[in-house]
Specification:
Blueprint (H helix, E strand, L loop, with lengths): L1 E5 L4 H13 L4 E6 L11 H5 L5 E5 L5 H11 L3 E4 L6 H6 L1 H21 L4 E7 L25 H20 L3 E6 L1 E3 L8 H10 L4 E4 L5 E6 H14 L5 E4 L4 E3 H11 L7 E4 L14 H7 L7 H14 L1 H8 L15
Parallel strand pairs: 1-2, 1-4, 2-3, 4-5, 5-6, 6-10, 7-9, 8-12
Antiparallel strand pairs: 9-11
């Protein structure tokens, strides 16, 4: 099988490419990425250096209709896996237009090119955040039939992309699937996201910017467990269906900070409390029973084991993350109250 992976130079996309080439020795992967600030070919340097003939990179923006149509028409992939997205809530507050252009219009451009070229499968990577947020004390979880209630520009742009994918299935019969995943962590994650931000701040001698609503919680999954779930959906998932991917493991910002401080032998004085970003969601938690019952997926990597391995990876790879810290476009300690 030939896969076209969009956004393959990003965090989850690059881990997926590495996973797929390792797990499917007869398959080929085309990595299409615009190499915006979070796209980084260093994420796949080991594959480049191995001169793997089953891997190639093409630089293109998914909003460029002419380029996308030409690439898909000439490469003739069997399957498109769409990771390409602007994906940072804080940056979306600063520059919302970029998120709607890439995440909604870019996805529609890919869908149309896939339709014109009779692509046999289009899988779209979405997020738990399209469902909105939950009360901290509720027993509710988001299922695949929960209404979409996005609260931030990023969440809304991903919700719009999901709707476009569904429309292409219902209107044109394009063979699609969607997965909505909880928060990922692991190696090669850009150091603007909370776990690598906290780790690299400490390793750089800087304090951790902890939001004042520090009990807000997220559900966490190690990126390789996410990749295995996508693999199952591609091979066994039902066309037109959405699958939630979650572990049930919830950690607050406070708990994440405590784990990382303890692992790196730092005390509470390394934390500073900063104003919440606008639209800071309280909690996300997915009901992932559908993918477990229908496809037999289960997460395999315990959180404490995965987070320790992630901390160790960043300790051992300063040459990867140090140049990226200068590229961060948002300073989490500098939010101002916008609710006046």
């Amino acid at each position: 099988m030939r896969l076209l992976v969009t956004g393959g130079a990003g965090f989850i996309g690059s881990n997926f490419i590495r996973y797929w080439l390792r797990s499917h020795e007869q398959d080929a992967v085309i990595n299409l990425d615009a190499l915006t600030y979070a796209g980084n070919l260093e994420n796949l340097r080991d594959i480049e250096h191995s001169q793997n003939e089953r891997y190639q990179f093409v630089q293109a923006d998914i909003t460029d209709e002419k380029s996308i149509t030409k690439i898909i028409g000439s490469e003739k992939p069997d399957c498109i896996v769409n990771f390409a997205a602007e994906s940072h809530n804080s940056l979306a507050i600063v520059n919302p237009g970029a998120f709607f252009r890439t995440n909604v219009l870019g996805t529609q451009t890919l869908l149309e090119a896939a339709r014109q070229n009779n692509i046999s499968r289009f899988h779209h990577i979405s997020t738990c955040e399209v469902y909105g947020d939950l009360d901290l004390e509720t027993t509710e979880r988001f299922s695949e039939t929960s209404p979409y209630r996005p609260r931030t520009p990023y969440n809304a742009s991903k919700a719009g992309a999901d709707m476009a994918v569904r429309a292409y299935f219902e209107t044109f019969g394009l063979p699609v699937t969607i997965s909505n995943c909880c928060n990922n962590y692991g190696p090669y994650q850009f150091p603007e996201k909370v776990i690598p931000l906290f780790i690299t701040n400490i390793l750089s001698g800087e304090k951790l910017p902890v939001y004042q609503s520090s009990q807000n919680r997220r559900e966490w999954i190690q990126v390789d467990d996410h990749c295995r779930a996508i693999d199952l959906i591609l091979h066994q998932g039902k066309l037109g269906e959405t699958y939630n991917i979650g572990t049930g493991i919830e950690k607050s910002v406070e708990e994440i900070a405590a784990l990382i401080l303890s692992a790196l032998e730092k005390d509470e004085n390394w934390k500073i409390y900063v104003p919440d970003r606008p639209g800071h969601d309280r909690r996300y938690l997915l009901d992932s029973s559908k993918i477990k019952q229908e496809l037999g997926w289960q997460p395999e990597i315990p959180f404490n084991e995965g987070i320790q391995a992630t901390i160790q990876w960043y300790q051992e790879h300063p040459e990867w993350w140090q140049p990226l810290r200068a590229k961060r476009l948002v300073q989490e300690a500098q939010w101002k109250n916008t609710n006046n």
